[in-house]
Amino acid sequence: MVSVKILGTGCNKCKALEKKVRELATRNNIDAEFTKVTEIEDIMKYGIMMTPGLVINEQVKSYGIIPKEEEIINWLKGN
Amino acid sequence: MNTAKSKILILVLLFPLWLLLYLNLESITDLLIFSLIGITPKTHLTDAIWFFVFEVPKVLLLLTLIVFVVGIIRTYFSPERTRKILGGKKLFVGNVFASMLGIVTPFCSCSAIPLFLGFIESGVPLGVTFSFLIAAPMINEVALVLLFGLFGWKTALLYMSTGLIIAMLSGYIIGRLKLEKYVEPWVYQVKAGHLELEEEKISFSQRISSGIDAVKEIVSKVWIYIVIGIAVGAGIHGYVPENFMAGLMGKDAWWSVPVAVLLGVPMYSNAAGIIPIVQALLEKGASLGTVLAFMMAVIGLSLPETIILRKVLKLQLIFAFVGIVAVGIIVVGYLFNLIY
């Protein structure tokens, strides 16, 4: 099971990112558990200064952007 | 590698096309309006239509180019790097750096809080952080493009330099007043993690992609405001009589600057919608200082951002921040009414 965390206080980009990662996980049959981190103190623990942040298996993969699909798939697959 | 080369090649080929279009826009517009559609010149309606057909593609062309270039420049400036630069800086020098970095560092008001926390937590002084937070939204590429396209380079430069000065001085004053006690106490307890992202070498091809992404994101978001703004501007341009605004927003109306700022602060419109309208007003006799002050208040001091900041700042500091910046804008407004 892949753990996916979306860090963001609820901006449009955060929602778009979550939707995209969910879609990609379903489409590629990846078993993922999604958590939304919306409390700013918790977001700060990951050290990012731009939202949305994408954390996969407790590793910050991207922040401030919506990454490309291929990249997200790679991360989800653990590469 | 091949994709990178072809990407650059396409861009190299696109640029002359861009230039050709941009430089000949006036004759293309003439051709389109007078020859093809065949409306009679010199009526209010023709004036308005001509203005619209000419300005919309002009501004969109400029916007595409500038957003692309800024998108590439921003790949060289991450918030982490900016924070590192600002960390050891003293007041004033720090304020100068922060204001300038505010222009080139990627920023969106939705990230204002994590950015604020990240800066403060790593020891960037409060006043320096504020210089950054004032400059970043006020001096943005969309505003500059519109100012350049509709008002000319002098006004764009004036806006940018006075905006920088306001950001530097306001941050400096906030720092000098020692307002740290009005930051919510929890802010200083935040233990931020430290992101150990391997400093990836970004290839130039990736930077170009970032530029293209920026164009897609920003242009797709603001084009509609530009079209509407220019349409309203075109209406004013064609139908509102000359000097109509002189009494209201002219030089002699001394109260016009503070009123413009008071109106501008709670107004939340993006630069794309407001600048074309304001440009039309300028033509009808509004004075440049008043117009500049209004734009700065609308773009630089936005209510939503202030509300977001309430999470980390006590009300006293919010009022101090808005007050100091507003006074700065008013001074700039009067200054330009005096000069011009």
List the keywords.
heterodimer, A: 79 residues, alpha+beta, Glutaredoxin, 4-stranded mixed sheet, globular, B: 340 residues, mainly alpha, 16 helices, flat
CATH superfamily of chain A: Glutaredoxin
What gyration radius of chain A follows from the Cα positions, in whole Å?
11 Å
Q: What form of chain A results from the Cα inertia axes? A: globular
Note the beta-strand portion of chain A.
Answer: 25-35%
What would you note in describing this structure?
The complex is a heterodimer of chains A (79) and B (340). By secondary structure, chain A is an alpha+beta fold. Chain A has one domain: 3-Layer(aba) Sandwich (Glutaredoxin). In chain A, 37% of the residues lie in helices and 27% in strands. Chain A has a four-stranded mixed β-sheet with strand order 2-1-3-4. In chain A, β3 and β4 form a beta hairpin. The longest helix of chain A has 16 residues. The relative contact order of chain A is 0.27. The mean pLDDT of chain A is 89. Chain B has 340 residues and is an all-alpha fold. Chain B has one domain. Chain B has 16 helices and no strands. In chain B, α8 packs parallel to α13. Chain B is flat, with a radius of gyration of 22 Å. The mean pLDDT of chain B is 86. The interface between A and B is medium-sized, with 17 and 24 residues.
